[in-house]
Amino acid sequence: MEFWEGVGVLNVWKMISIVFISLIFTLNIAPFIASAQKAQIDFSEGNYDDFREDLNGGWTFFPDQYLTPEKVKKELKNNKGIDVKAPYFIKPKYREMKGLGTYSTVISLPDDFVGKWLQLYIPIQLSNYKVFIDDQLLTENKQNILMNTASDRSIQTPSPIFLVHDRKLRVTYQMVDFPVENAGIRKSMMIGNEKAIKKYTDQQDFLHIFLIGGITLIGMISLVLYIFKREERSFIAFSLFCFLTSTWGFFTDAYLVTVFYDGIEWATAVRFAYLLPELVILLYLYYLTITFEDAVNKWAMVFYYVVMWITIVITITTETVVFQNTFVFANILLTPFYIYFFISILRKVNWKNRLEILTLIGISLVFLASLHDIYQIMISGNSIHYTFLALAVFIAIQCFILSREFALQWSEIECLNTELVKWNETLDEKIKIRTAKLEESNMKLRSLALLDGLTGAFNRHYFNKNYENLFQKHLEVGEPFSVLIIDVDEFKKYNDYYGHIEGDKLLRKLVDVLIKNLPISAQFTRYGGEEFAILLDRMGFEELEQLAEQLREVTEQLQLPHLGRDRGVVTISIGGISLHNSYYDDALEVLKIADEQLYLAKNSGRNQVKIKNLG
């Protein structure tokens, strides 16, 4: 509280407002800047195998006109149409007329795309439409586009494929507007290789379903806690809040509900898309009033509840345009309340309590995301439901806090039980137990000090120590020994392509395979990054060459995919030395020679073995 009083409510709110307004302006100004050039989108530098691009950019829009591709060309010759940047929704001044519209643009593709197949992915657009590539009809979401009736409209995401005949394609999007706000090309269409688009959409769906599943699970846990502790209202409020949030996830812009029921009508889906967030935010604020008791004035909350319940009733009982406009109006009306609510929570936060600060971070994310989404609904068509994502973060934070509180309580109970046991033990028994635990911990620490945490192999410290011992033994009694250094070829490209998590998995896989192909006496260590070193006592040059070649072949035969490099599979390069009766007396010099052999193998085209016999 001292921090809050020192900074001042007004100054903090000014900072938050400036950051928010700047963010919103940056995110949303692009769709409304008229293009000063001809309507075209250039993808001439694309690569076919991973080609996937949003059709954002220059389009020509013909309001209140339903034009064929041929008519579009004639209109463009007469300099007709409005240059816009997609995504672009029909403004009210156009929608109040005939409710028709045509978009057109020219796409430039690389020359090698001619004769190949591409896919056009059209996310859910709240309008009837036909899409043409050049003069050919590619897809439509209704048999008779000019019949503007609501009975047969369903949520659809068509993904037609087509053969590219020319590097320049004209895309024409004919549209009959639905009676909803923000109609038009409100979501970015995509063009690309069918596999690339499927990979992208699958990833998006997986993330969304993962969030929905996680939120549902948290809600179930909270519900179970409420069953056993019914005096805690926060458990049931949080549980219902989680269930409604996860249900809302099926009706955000992705409309995942169509995965399970593709026959749902657009009007029903849109109604749920508005009704669910209204209920979610209602329960969200109710939960916060329980968590931060007496933070918000009672009559202010009554005002909010009255406005929201009226909005909910209108959403359930009226036509689409009515409840959409009501939603926008209600949120504009409640904006001062939301600001007041947020400031009230800020004043209530105990700044010395880290958990309350963590909760405040989650609340702030939801607050800013909600304002962003409301702004998008009023201004922009290509909205992203940041509120849903922010609520998922908030729920995760609350789950963490709840888990921590239970863990602390459980730890406290365990500590009390441990103390009772200790009081019943003799002093000698206590000393023995503590001594045994200390020895066990020391053994674990000694073991961990020599092992690599990622792969389980010995670490660099172990290598340095044992290499010095072997070299000293060689100098004293003349026993031969060898060193191999292994490098995973183009591992950085593997990480860039697959990510560091998959890179770590690859290293663990290679370590397991390589160790299985080594003699028992070999000492396998992680030398650093993607490099590994092997110490081999009493092994001569010829035997060493055979072993190194075997390790290289085993790795290549695994055929582990590496699409980030030209070869396409994972390989290793190996360098090494064999030391027998040489006159080397500098251990670092010998190790440097082994390292030079590794670089020679890599510079020779990789997937090579280079061993030097030092005599």
In summary, what is this structure?
The chain is built from 18 helices and 20 strands. It is α+β, with helices and mostly antiparallel strands and 615 residues long.
Describe the structure.
Residues 479-614 form the GGDEF domain. GO terms for molecular function: diguanylate cyclase activity. It comes from Kurthia zopfii. This is Bacteriophytochrome cph2. The longest helix has 38 residues, at 386-423. This protein has three domains: 2-26 and 197-405; 33-192, Galactose-binding domain-like (Jelly Rolls); 460-613, Reverse transcriptase/Diguanylate cyclase domain (Alpha-Beta Plaits, 2-Layer Sandwich), CATH 3.30.70.270. The radius of gyration is 33 Å and the shape is flat. Strand 8 (127-133) and strand 9 (136-140) form a beta hairpin. By secondary structure, the chain is of the alpha+beta class. It starts with a helix and ends with a strand. It contains 18 helices and 20 strands. Strands 1, 3, 4, 6, 8, 9 and 11 form a seven-stranded mixed β-sheet that branches. A five-stranded mixed β-sheet has the order 15-16-14-19-20, with helices on both faces. The protein has a four-stranded antiparallel β-sheet with strand order 2-13-7-10, with helices on one face.
